[in-house]
Design a protein that fits this description.
alpha/beta; Rossmann fold
């Protein structure tokens, strides 16, 4: 189903960028050259297309970047127009059906938990759309007491009455980044901080993630901590699995 361009989304006006050093580390830690060269790849929830472009530059035959954000897709199409093996589609991933046997690798970083679609259904779709021997990489926000309370509290205070408290929280979040790195970009921080107030998140435990992915038919190669994208990022774990 192609998303109706007239309908708005919380993610439409968000456009932020992760540090390239972080992206390089994550990709290099999880993918080898053989995973990329002459492969058809899907970036499921591509954001502004940074990872999609890096995968395309690693020799992929094709990379399809899917995202619901209007700004993300527009930025990707304009910025990476020279990459003939990379295409962008604006889609609502809550109901988008992936074509069967279409990809050799699916990459999805911190996306699945933001969808209202059941994880079982998403995993089944991933399995069907991968070819034999295909690789699935997925990272998820760690389900802990802290993250559960964090997103509950953020949902409660996200109202006009609590704007002053939100500004205080953002001040300390910005301070953590300024202390840890030299190149603090205020505009990028403002965009990224919007993600703390996402309208929906389904926190999934490691045990549950393993059960769902294995039940879909995958063989899990590893599950482990993912490096943090910035000092304010909550804990994440990553899974690499194979369709045998």
């Amino acid at each position: 189903m192609v998303r109706d361009e007239e309908n708005g989304s919380f993610y439409d006006d968000i456009l932020y960028f992760n540090d390239k050093s972080y992206l390089d580390l994550v990709i290099d830690a999880n993918l080898e050259s053989a995973d990329c060269v002459d492969k058809d790849m899907l970036d499921f929830g591509s954001g502004a297309g940074q990872v999609s472009a890096l995968l395309a530059k690693k020799g992929a035959r094709s990379v399809l970047a899917l995202d619901i954000g209007k700004k993300n897709i527009s930025h990707g199409r304009e910025t990476y127009a020279a990459l003939n093996n990379l295409s962008f589609e604006r889609q609502d991933l809550n109901d988008y059906v992936l074509a069967e046997d279409s990809f050799d690798l699916i990459w999805s970083d911190t996306v699945v938990e933001l969808l209202q679609r059941p994880f079982d259904e998403i995993a089944d779709g991933f399995f069907r759309s991968l070819r034999h021997g295909g690789i699935l990489y997925v990272s998820l926000t760690e389900k802990t007491l802290f993250t559960t309370l964090l997103y509950t509290a953020l949902r409660i205070i996200n109202n006009p009455v609590s704007r002053s408290l939100i500004q205080v929280l953002k001040f300390f979040a910005a301070l953590k980044i300024k202390i840890s790195k030299d190149d603090f970009e205020e505009k990028n921080f403002e965009e990224k901080s919007k993600y703390f107030f996402i309208p929906y998140i389904q926190l999934i435990s490691r045990k549950r993630a393993v059960q769902v992915i294995e039940r879909a038919g995958f063989q899990i190669e590893y599950i482990r901590d993912r490096i943090r994208s910035d000092p304010n990022s909550p804990l994440h774990f990553e899974i690499r699995a194979k369709k045998c």
